[in-house]
Design a protein that fits this description.
Elements lengths: L15 H10 L11 E4 L4 E4 L6 H11 L5 E7 L5 H13 L3 E4 L4 E3 L1 H6 L5 E3 L4 E4 L3 E3 L4 E3 L11 H10 L3 H10 L6 E2 L2 H6 L15 H10 L4
Parallel strand pairs: 2-3, 3-4, 3-5, 4-6, 5-7
Antiparallel strand pairs: 1-2, 7-10, 8-9
Helix pairs in contact: 2-3, 3-5
Length: 224
């Protein structure tokens, strides 16, 4: 079975962590699960799907096949089922000098947001959905929320080290732990995105993402 220590997901309305873990591990049938893909267009990749153990290989293959492409449009990346694989893939993208875009009508959340932050340049379209939440650990009988783990616990270092590498204020990490618990998602406001430097360019403020609109994006892609 998949290691469930720090699985991240924002699949709403389900037994979130377990549903994602079982699907990725191949131990359950009938769940909506689309693994991460990078599809080459003229001068950019389109990213969609859940980040899992296959993602570093997907990223390497795409970068090797199209070294001239330096931009990813993150259309719909709702989370990750493997934190270590997510950070490995994200570091590969950072080292390759990739820029990231969440377009109008696009959505990243949880581990997808962490991957987006790997972009050397980051653009957020008007009304794009950027979701965050705490990681969860333990079991359903004895769950552990990230915010309840002492700040000096080594479990926090996985993402603190990553954010330090890519130049993201560690305050963002602590903010995500309080923004929503592991079974829910919080879509960042414009003010929050500006506060934590989510984008490297200005974000249009006339169409801030609203939760119903973000849920509609989830439904459009069949994950809710």
């Amino acid at each position: 079975m998949l290691n469930m220590t720090k699985i991240k997901s924002n699949l709403r309305g389900k037994s979130l962590i377990l549903a994602t873990a079982l699907t990725v591990a191949g131990c359950a049938q009938g769940q909506d699960y689309q693994p991460f893909t990078l599809t080459a267009r003229a001068d950019y990749f389109v990213a969609q799907g859940v980040i899992d153990g296959s993602t570093p290989g997907v990223v390497r293959k795409a970068l090797n096949a199209h070294p001239e492409i330096k931009k990813i449009i993150m259309q719909y990346v709702p989370g990750s089922a493997d934190d270590e694989a997510n950070l490995e893939a994200s570091r590969l993208l950072r080292e390759s000098g990739i820029s990231m875009v969440v377009p109008e009508g696009g959505l990243v959340a949880s581990g997808g947001t962490d991957m987006f932050l790997a972009g050397v340049q980051r653009d957020v379209g008007s009304g794009a959905c950027i979701g965050v939440h705490s990681w969860g650990a333990g079991s359903f009988i004895n769950p552990i929320a990230g915010r309840d783990v002492p700040k000096d616990d080594p479990q926090h270092q996985l993402y603190l080290s990553y954010y330090d590498e890519i130049g993201i204020d560690p305050a963002f990490y602590w903010y995500t732990l309080d923004a929503a618990d592991a079974d829910n998602i919080h879509y960042m406001t414009l003010a929050e995105m500006q506060q934590y430097g989510i984008a490297t360019s200005s974000i249009a403020g006339n169409a801030e993402a609203q939760e119903p609109a973000c849920e509609a994006v989830e439904q459009r892609y069949g994950f809710s």
